[in-house]
Amino acid sequence: MKQIAIAAAALAALLSASGARAQESVKIGLLQSFSGITSLSGQQTDGAVKLFMKQNGDTAGGKKIEFVRRDTTGPNPEVARRLVQEVVTREKVQLLIGPDFTPNTLAAAPILMEAKVPSFVNGAATTGIIGEKSSYSSRTFFATPQLCRPLAEYAVKNNWKRVFVAVADFAPGHDCEKYFVEALAAASGVLAGQLRVPLSNPEFSGYMQRIRDAKPDALFIFMPLGELSIGILRAVSDSGLKGSGIKIMGTGDITDETYLDAVGDAAIGTITSGIYSTRHESELNKKFVREYTELNGPSPRIGWTAVSIYDAMRLAYDGLNAQAGGKFDPDKFVSFVHGRSFESPRGPVTIDKGNGDITQNVYIRRTDKVDGVLQNVEIETFKDVGFK
Questions:
Q1: What is the C-alpha to C-alpha distance for residues 219 and 233, in angstroms, rounded to an integer?
Q2: Residue 270 falls inside a structural domain
Q3: How confident is the model at residue 171 (pLDDT cuts 50, 70, 90)?
Q4: pTM of the predicted protein model
């Protein structure tokens, strides 16, 4: 009897230990802009995580999900590097969503690579940062060529053959300028002129006359989310440039829903290429918009940061569930995520098996007022656009 009691106690201890292991936590770092002029992206991050957790619970793969939340304050690589080092070495995060913005992502890459921490890139669009800088990264945002090339083709098809190009003077802007100009030439369009706008304290009014003097059919704009996007569209409207008959177009950053109300009626008629709009006609997106708004309220409006974070959460949960019952293995996690295809609120998405970049639909949208609210209405679809 004594031996049976000992065996029973041992079994109970084993089961207890197994239960404890099953409830071990997985820490996910959230490095986003929660303050400053880009804080609306941070608010979308919180909203998307909150919605996903409500729909799917707070465990994945039998492990409790914990978040380590840090504020990058915007595009600041020194801050991002310090925060990544902190969450990796001190907090021991196993996964990272972020950091946002290209310079922040580049600063983080060597640390994440050395520590073997898989990450989801949700705010950096520059080519060459996925796979090349860190093989542990996957992109749930977009790569610059995906938005810049289709719009050149669309412009020429609509007989807007002479195009002036205005981009922000940083790596993604230079990338977009290159890909748009190449695609414009390939479509037999003509570059009417180009300029680069500094990220800090831009004075847009001086650029408007240069654009008008070039007499283009269209103006193509690439500016990051926030202050620059708002500023240039207002300047285009206030200067009378749009009223002169020049078509205004650009990547979807300039009319992202999160900032669209701040732009106001100056955005009406703008043609953009984008990966997501709340007007996207799918049942999954209608459900996503309805439940997100019910949970988080109508402000800030849902932009592509929210859907990028939501999709990163989906991949994180799926990857963790694939390792249920075992110790977290970063290499197995990356191997599982790379190559995944799934239906997102934005449409079909595939994470490349080779380098973790993204293939997705790109939508040509026109900004209109629908029931008194500014909306990006999809008017054409480029299917399964790659990242190169």
A1: 11
A2: yes
A3: confident
A4: 0.90
